[in-house]
Amino acid sequence: MDTLTCDTLIYDGLEDGSVRCGMCNHLCVIKEGKKGICAVRENKGGKLLSLVYPKVIATGIDPIEKKPLYHLKPGSFSYSIAAPGCNFKCSFCQNANIAQVASGNESMIYRAEDILPATIVRKTVENGCESISYTYTEPTVFFELAFETARLAKKEGLFNIFVTNGYMSPEALEMISPYLDAANVDLKAFDDGFYKKFCKARIEPVKSNLKTMKKIGILLEITTLLIPGLNDHPDHLKAMAEYIAGELGPETPWHISRFHPCHNMTDRSSTSVASLEKAYEAGKSAGLNYVYIGNLPGQSAENTYCHSCGELLIKRYGYHVEKHMENNGQCPKCNTPAYGIY
After folding, report:
1. DSSP 8-state code for residue 341
2. Could you give phi then psi for residue 125, rounded to 5 degrees?
3. Distance, first Cα to last Cα, the chain
4. For a pLDDT cut of 70, what percent of the chain falls above it?
5. What percentage of the chain carries pLDDT values higher than 90?
6. Residue 110's pLDDT is what?
7. Sheet harboring 182-186: ordered strands across?
8. Which residues pair with 72 in a beta bridge?
């Protein structure tokens, strides 16, 4: 396979010709001719090369609410891109057809189209989008493309968004941070055993990156896909909500998303409304200002309310904004500022 690459890869060469990849917290040691867990970075002659730069497997012009991001330019559109691959192996993967390269799906790399960063930025502007979202698959595995695109996008006044599992290395996060405006991070459970069994990863690197993102000023929102019988225990939800409120701040939005059977997890029913509402109450009881229920259009928990007086600020139905934020991000009733960029 012909491989284009850029100079943003983080790795160390080892004495035996192997390389240690430093792009995410797996820190894969990759022998000559082999690939890492993500299956899209390969050791060739003691050098780590990307197999997916600058390949794009999916594009879309999405409402920013679809990311979901509710506190960055609500009602705007985001030019969304993805390359093949992921560094997680989630049993419940919602985009397995483009994310799970290592599951006998290598041909998707050949089907992806080469699109250079400047072209992505141009298409974003031409389509009237205010941001670029690196989404659908894990942006850490196409970090090279995301980084080069984000640098150009910033010069054009565009926002850059990661929709991510939060498993990037501290070095990768530091590298992208000057250009990254917002992130929606999947906090998949509050249990390391869940991460190990169902994602083939660990929870602590995710928690560490969440705190770093918040500390350095990246607009942060969190999503948890609530899976019946696996990550919906009341004690775990209470602990997760208290962690978000206590460690990341009560202004941090928490999206509780409804699960539907998919990929290797078709043995479970969709999340019940009652379960979603219990998780919502756990968030509010922990003191979170903004808790949302997703994948269930028509719920009042889709809306944004003033955390001080309860005034309706933004009314939504699914991904459609029916009532927009007024007064430049301040509550029109009590003048309390809402978290985010409006």
Report:
1. B
2. -65, -45
3. 45
4. 96
5. 92
6. 80
7. 58-63, 77-82, 131-134, 159-164, 182-186, 219-226, 254-258, 291-294
8. 341
Exposed (0-12), middle (13-18) or buried (19+): which is 329, by Cβ within 10 Å? middle
Put simply, whether the predicted model's pTM sits higher than 0.90 gets the answer yes
User: Does residue 332 have a cis peptide bond before it, meaning omega lies within 30 degrees of 0?
Assistant: no
Report the C-alpha gap between 169 and 1 in whole angstroms. 27
Residue ranges of the chain whose pLDDT lies below 50: 1-5
Q: Three-state SS for 256?
A: strand
Residue-by-residue DSSP string for 144-188? HHHHHHHHHHHHTT-EEEEEE-S-B-HHHHHHHTTT--EEEEE--
pLDDT tens column, 279-312: 999 999 999 999 999 999 999 999 999 999 999 9
pLDDT of residue 104: 60
Query: What's the one-letter identity of residue 102?
Result: A
d(C-alpha 256, C-alpha 170), whole Å: 26
